[in-house]
Amino acid sequence: xxxxxxxxxxxxxxxxxxxxxxxxxxxxxxxxxxxxxxxxxxxxxxxxxxxxxxxxxxxxxxxxxxxxxxxxxxxxxxxxxxxxxxxxxxxxxxxxxxxxxxxxxxxxxxxxxxxxxxxxxxxxxxxxxxxxxxxxxxxxxxxxxxxxxxxxxxxxxxxxxxxxxxxxxxxxxxxxxxxxxxxxxxxxxxxxxxxxxxxxxxxxxxxxxxxxxxxxxxxxxxxxxxxxxxxxxxxxxxxxxxxxxxxxxxxxxxxxxxxxxxxxxxxxx
Length: 269
Fold this sequence. Notes:
alpha+beta
């Protein structure tokens, strides 16, 4: 991914985090529908990614096109995407798809880590079912078969799927955007798995911690991050002492090894 696209996507994830955290499945569905419109028009993609146009002009195109057709939350997300710079036309569409998956994951996350784990499990379960059958792969990639028929087949194969999993499975079989449905579902599952890391505290210490310390540590981390984290404690004598905690993208490192490395860099710089 080119630097311009990487920077734009990173800023979108940060700026839209709260918006997507409180979004519902309707927003995700509308984002997928908006993606279909963008994918279906090369001229629209060029218009929305034209670096010669001001970001506000590109966002205005989105509002004129979608303003009276989808929710205000969806328009806000699409405007934000259009106002960024993208290296390729495809990158803008990929960003919309990823944000739609984020919205679905956020709905599942309202049941905590278990909700995300269940969503990932259902996506991978359907993927395995398809991957193990040449007949199913053929049926779901048949260019002559209508999307509705593929979605009906998917529903028969995954009758217990949650609303969140159903939306992503339907999307993968109906509009895989150049991939096989199983491959796109794997991408969706990887994105859900990445969000699970927000609920797992990777703790590294030099020696085993007693139960009372772990209880206090767990309570403190839960208060700091505002959610019930699962501790994954690893003992690594090379850190010498102190503690290193990693939750998603956030890292707190107060190990002796880290402080010594920092001191060494300051001395030699």
